[in-house]
Amino acid sequence: MRRFLALLVLILSAPVAAQTGLPPAPYADRQLEDPQQEAVASELMEELRCLKCQSQSIADSNAPMAGDMRSQVRERIAAGETPEEVRSWLIERYGNWVSYDPPIASAVTWPLWIAPIVLLLAALWLARGRFRKRRGDE
Amino acid sequence: MNRWLLWLPLVLFGLFFGAVAIGLMMPKDNIIESKMVGKKMPEFALPAAIEQRPALTSADLSGGKPTLLNIFASWCVPCIAEAPQLLELQRAGVEINAIASRDTPEDIANFLNRWGNPYTRIGTDTTSKVQLELGSSGVPETFVIDGNGVIVHQHIGDIREEDVAMLIKLLEEAR
Question: Under a CB-based contact definition with an 8 Å cutoff, are residues B130 and B46 in contact?
Answer without folding.
Answer: yes
